[in-house]
Amino acid sequence: MSASRPNRPSSTPGWGAPLQLVLRLLVMGLGLGVITGTALKLLAPRLAGSGQPGPAVPASLAPPGLSSLPRGLGLGRFEPRSELTALSQKWAQLASVHKDLQASGYLLVLDDGRFAQLNPERPLPAASSIKTPILLAGLEELDAGRLTWNEPLTLTKEVAGGGAGWMASRPLGSRFPFWEAATEMIRVSDNSATNLLIKRLGGKASLNARFQALGLTGTVINNWLPDLDGTNTTSAHDLARAIALVDTGEKLSPRARDLFREVMGTSRTNTLLPLGLLMGLGGDSADPDSDLLGHGVTVLNKTGDIGIAYADGGLIELPNGQRAVAAFLVKGPFNDQRSTDLIRAMAAEVARSLIGKPRASAAPRP
Question: Contact at 8 Å (CB) between 328 and 272?
């Protein structure tokens, strides 16, 4: 008979299995932590750039002073809320003195919605003021990647325009980069540069459709510039809105918005809106832009002048940090000084209403 095997005691569970479980949980926890941290790191810039507010920090957990810090300056909105009736009435009084002049005026403080108006949506000859919405349309195409900043534009007989500017004096076939045409269109109001942009942006009909989509209902291009007959139209409301769409961030990326401001800042003519504002502050100068800086005021504007009509529209940076858009148009007899005087007078009332009396220390800059 074979020897029987001795009975072995039944095995009892030891520490091996629990330790393995704990180690697995630790490894899984570390892995999830790494994955979560990496994901948050990658998503943080996108979340920050989305413009959406983050979760509120409880006051008890916030570092000292954090709850009182501003989240950033607001961009404002093109949204009229409360009318400055005294200012609107003053504009109406100024215009009523000249029965043979047609006037349009509009002002909106982007930060709080205060506004004034005088026939704000009346279409009047735009003259060169229509170049502001054309610049907006061009920068929209740049933003969309459908044109480049240095794309060459060719001068042809069709687009060579008389009047303001120097590009028409160049030989046909000359090529100008888009940035130069856009800048000269505003800086010296070059009409050929403007026509180059109109053609590159699809022509008159295409631009008119774009203006309608932007809510610029009275802005229409019927003829190439200089359009001395005044067939191209816009309104004070449209000019103010075109500038506000950019400054409030509703249209254009931040970089394209910077380009818009830089180009608008090159405009040489400052004898209407800027000078009128300065006159409202008790000043008068051959260089109103410089003197306005002494009052804490900056104006980025574009004028229009075809003799039978004058216009000016711009962004006004106020001493209290707020921003406003204002625009004025007047149609009247050819080269009638009352038209430009009326624009300056209405702009002066804007300064008196929004800024009041000038600071005692404010003085013309040398």
Answer: yes
Q: Can you spell out the DSSP letters for 133-197?
A: HHHHHHHHHHHHTSS-TT-EEE--TTT---SS-SGGGSPTT-EEEHHHHHHHHHHS--HHHHHHH
With tokens 């948050």, the residue in question is: 40
The CATH number that domain 82-354 falls under is 3.40.710.10
What does each C-alpha distance from 86 to 7, 90, 92, 170, 240 come to in angstroms?
A: 110, 6, 10, 50, 20
Mean pLDDT by 10-residue block, N- to C-terminus, for the chain (366 residues)? 43 54 58 54 46 40 39 79 98 97 98 97 98 98 97 97 94 98 98 98 97 97 97 98 96 96 96 98 95 96 98 97 97 98 98 78 45
Residue-wise burial string across 282-320, b where 16 or more C-beta atoms lie within 10 A, e elsewhere: ebebeebbebbebbebbbbbbbbbbebbbbbbbbbbbbe
Domain ranges of the chain: 82-354
